[in-house]
Amino acid sequence: xxxxxxxxxxxxxxxxxxxxxxxxxxxxxxxxxxxxxxxxxxxxxxxxxxxxxxxxxxxxxxxxxxxxxxxxxxxxxxxxxxxxxxxxxxxxxxxxxxxxxxxxxxxxxxxxxxxxxxxxxxxxxxxxxxxxxxxxxxx
Length: 139
Description:
Keywords: Signal. By secondary structure, this protein is an alpha+beta fold. It has one domain: Crystallins (Gamma-B Crystallin, domain 1). It is built from one helix and seven strands; from the N terminus they run αβββββββ. A four-stranded antiparallel beta sheet has the order 2-1-3-6, with no helix packed on it. A three-stranded antiparallel beta sheet has the order 5-4-7, with no helix packed on it.
């Protein structure tokens, strides 16, 4: 094997390990940490939960992961409540459709809410952002 082949293999392996690490750094772990939005299978932030560190284009590829009722169920169209575990200047927004489309509600950071009846078990995507404080429904 020549030195260029060895360098290419070494470089590819190093790059793969960087991507593997960055992928797992933001992976859900079933613990609702600060700066995460956490969706629950049951009302009153109970049952199984999934924690998100960032925007979710769709909830249909994710599963509730913590112990409790609903564990291993798809998050899309199955969430009943939310804990927006952010500071009060941040807002979590939950959408009816994937791709951040359709009707939505905004939840101020630090709040635990039951999703309204029209959105309960009809959630499909979510975002969170710095808002300077929320003034919409759910705040």
